[in-house]
Amino acid sequence: MSDKLICEVFKSSRKDEMYLYVDKRQGLADVPEQLLETFGKPMPVFTMLLTTDKKIVTGQRRRRGGWD
């Protein structure tokens, strides 16, 4: 198994801040139909290289008195 993966990220056309991260080689072929129905039309956002030595950073929430 490789320690690198080319990942394609899609944004939902129906739900704000909902994204799908998929293996670029597979595309959306393995995504369950029910999820795609809820997700709406997948809109490509970007492609990135994932490696075992780096974490995916998520957005931070603003809280009273500072950031999470």
UniProtKB/TrEMBL annotation:
YcgL domain mapped to chain residues: 5-68
Highest taxon above the source species: Bacteria
PROSITE patterns given in the database record: YCGL
PANTHER family, A to Z: PROTEIN YCGL (PTHR38109:SF1)
Protein name listed in UniProt: YcgL domain-containing protein
UniProt source species: Vreelandella olivaria
Lineage of the organism: Bacteria, Pseudomonadati, Pseudomonadota, Gammaproteobacteria, Oceanospirillales
